[in-house]
Amino acid sequence: MASSDVVLPFFDTHAHLNLLPPEMPADEAYRKAREGGLAGLVNIGTRIASSRESIDLAARLPGVWATVGIHPSEASTLTSATREELALLAAAPRVVGIGETGIDRADFEETPLEVQAASLRAHIALARETDLPLILHCREAFEPLFALLDSERLSGRRGVFHCFTGSREEAFGALDRGFYLSFSGIVTFKNAASLREILPEIPEDRILLETDCPYLAPVPYRGKTNQPAYLPETLRVAAFARGEDPTAFSHQVLQNTRTFFAIDF
């Protein structure tokens, strides 16, 4: 059996099954991934409606957990009412994180920094109250995000920078603040050599893997709708970049996932 044919156990720590197109129903995509070695999945909330959908998926599909949050591009929708609703949703069974929240410089024109920052502070407060980790989105905004994190009292469980694509300095800025780094299919892209060069320097117990499906399908599936079943491609490339055996690396990442989300699977 070729190494690429070895079934590797994997866990998708950041997926949006509820956003898959009609021709790829969430149940079908999940079943296909389970057949290919998927040990579990966390479905991420990006607004009130998708947070509810994530909780519903977690209640219906074995091995699925949920987070609740409002994406920085939707930060203007955070009101006292939605904040209260998020708090109620955070208490639902199988909710294991707060977010997706953070700062996205690409959205500053429609959602200014101060609006995104106010939403992030509300998520930090909820994470602190629930003792759940933050799921952080950061696009070209590490400086203001680090400054905000340094100004707040964080949950002891900190959180994760999802879909990390920053520099070495930014990686260690996140690690030094107690956060994990999650890597997506971007690490397989031809133009992501700098990201692959960083991977060997990341402590083995601070790495998570994700699809961010339906976005960012890894090579050789670029251009297709991403799905959890594609995550082993990312896993193999990350293991190769670190000079590690893919099976051993996959088990390390599974243990990291158990520790980070405080779940058993």
Q: Please, what is the average pLDDT?
A: 97
Major beta-sheet overview = 8 strands, parallel
Low-confidence stretches: none
What is the fourth-level CATH superfamily?
A: Metal-dependent hydrolases
Task: Please report the distance between the alpha carbons of the first and last residues.
Answer: 27 Å
**Which strands sit side by side, in order, in the main sheet?**
1-2-3-4-5-6-7-8
> Would you identify the CATH architecture?
Alpha-Beta Barrel
Helix content: 25-40%
Oligomeric state of shown chains: single chain
Q: Which fold name is given in CATH as the topology?
A: TIM Barrel
What is the SS-derived class?
alpha/beta
Q: Please report the first level of CATH classification, the CATH class.
A: Alpha Beta
Number of domains: 1
Instruction: Please state the overall shape, judged from the principal axes of the Cα atoms.
Output: globular
